Amino acid sequence: MAKEVTLLTGFLGAGKTTLLNQIITQKTETRFAIVENEIGEMSIDAELVVKGATELVELNNGCLCCSLNDDIFEVLNELWDKREQWDHLIIEATGIADPANIAQPFLTMEQVKRGYILKRVICVVDAEQVEDQLRETAEAVQQLVFSDLILLNKTEKVSPEYLLELQATLKSINPFATVYIGTKDDYKIKQLFQQERILNFSASPQAVTPKGIFSISRDPAKAAPLLAISSLHQQHQHSEIETILLRYTQSMDITLLEHRMMVFLILQSASVYRIKGIIYSEGFESKIILQTVGKSLAVDLGERWLPDELRESKVVFIGKNLQVHGFDKMFRDCLTKNL
Ligand SMILES: Nc1nc2c(ncn2[C@@H]2O[C@H](COP(=O)(O)OP(=O)(O)OP(=O)(O)O)[C@@H](O)[C@H]2O)c(=O)[nH]1
């Protein structure tokens, strides 16, 4: 039997991982396989996904919609080999991905369609930030246009009047999508999963071979059809959006860091869409998860450090015209050794 797939899209920080965690915790009758795609070589999202996913695959070498096509085929093949262990695949795209590019193999490639049915594309939208995002980036528009379901999130942060305007705006961008409204505390997971794309798929499980459903090969001659798709996708680039990764092995003073971050967000954060970090602070048995979206800052406790785990802080910045030296100085100033 072909496996069902849900694609999660939405701009940086909209709430995709939060929704994913709600899905895993609420739909306990379903065993999920999760593909987490992140920009930059370091995975932070995978650490934020609640334990419970049967299979969690991280793809961190680039954005799935433009550079990871061979990787996704390999992952689909591997997951297919383990298909007895899971029921439903969720792909969380990066916040700057064009979901149409990720969906393309599921909609157009017969080998992929034999094993996987794309059931729905859900776009999570940050009610407070979306207007600016739509103005500034093509990616935010592409994500809305391609989705079947739009989850207008963080609605407690805006007024009811503005929410109505926003709904009308989203409907005008994608009149075919169903718009749900909510916050992280009240997602209607069952309703989201009841809704399906209206598409004609012909799944033919008999054609699936025990070795896998695609002929993946690094041999360029054998991999010709896949390479053709890869080169097509390379034309799509998130030209202006860049990422920076900073790491520090010394302990951070979390109170000082929080203060510096708040001042930074008030004064100079316009070109920074997202900051995500795992912070090591001596005296805390757990990782500290630091996140910003727009001008909002969240600092939470994460998983406990494992006894043999390297204790270090890792922070990713995503935005335009990023000033690495300024960020580095801000974080270095908060290292405990400097106090
Ligand atoms: N106030 C509020 N915050 C929310 C809501 N949903 C998510 N958040 C917060 O928004 C921040 C970003 O959420 P994520 O789920 O990590 O967003 P994401 O879309 O996965 O982010 P990227 O993977 O970086 O694109 C976190 O601090 C969440 O706790 C909500 O409904 N209300």
Automatic annotation (TrEMBL):
<dbReference type="GO" id="GO:0016787">
    <property type="term" value="F:hydrolase activity"/>
</dbReference>
<comment type="function">
    <text>Zinc chaperone that directly transfers zinc cofactor to target proteins, thereby activating them. Zinc is transferred from the CXCC motif in the GTPase domain to the zinc binding site in target proteins in a process requiring GTP hydrolysis.</text>
</comment>
<protein>
    <submittedName>
        <fullName>G3E family GTPase</fullName>
    </submittedName>
</protein>
<dbReference type="GO" id="GO:0005737">
    <property type="term" value="C:cytoplasm"/>
</dbReference>
<dbReference type="GO" id="GO:0000166">
    <property type="term" value="F:nucleotide binding"/>
</dbReference>
<dbReference type="InterPro" id="IPR036627">
    <property type="entry name" value="CobW-likC_sf"/>
</dbReference>
<feature type="domain" description="CobW/HypB/UreG nucleotide-binding">
    <location>
        <begin position="5"/>
        <end position="179"/>
    </location>
</feature>
<dbReference type="InterPro" id="IPR051316">
    <property type="entry name" value="Zinc-reg_GTPase_activator"/>
</dbReference>
<dbReference type="InterPro" id="IPR011629">
    <property type="entry name" value="CobW-like_C"/>
</dbReference>
<keyword id="KW-0143">Chaperone</keyword>
<dbReference type="Pfam" id="PF02492">
    <property type="entry name" value="cobW"/>
</dbReference>
<dbReference type="Pfam" id="PF07683">
    <property type="entry name" value="CobW_C"/>
</dbReference>
<keyword id="KW-0378">Hydrolase</keyword>
<dbReference type="InterPro" id="IPR027417">
    <property type="entry name" value="P-loop_NTPase"/>
</dbReference>
<feature type="domain" description="CobW C-terminal">
    <location>
        <begin position="252"/>
        <end position="335"/>
    </location>
</feature>
<keyword id="KW-0547">Nucleotide-binding</keyword>
<comment type="similarity">
    <text>Belongs to the SIMIBI class G3E GTPase family. ZNG1 subfamily.</text>
</comment>
<dbReference type="InterPro" id="IPR003495">
    <property type="entry name" value="CobW/HypB/UreG_nucleotide-bd"/>
</dbReference>
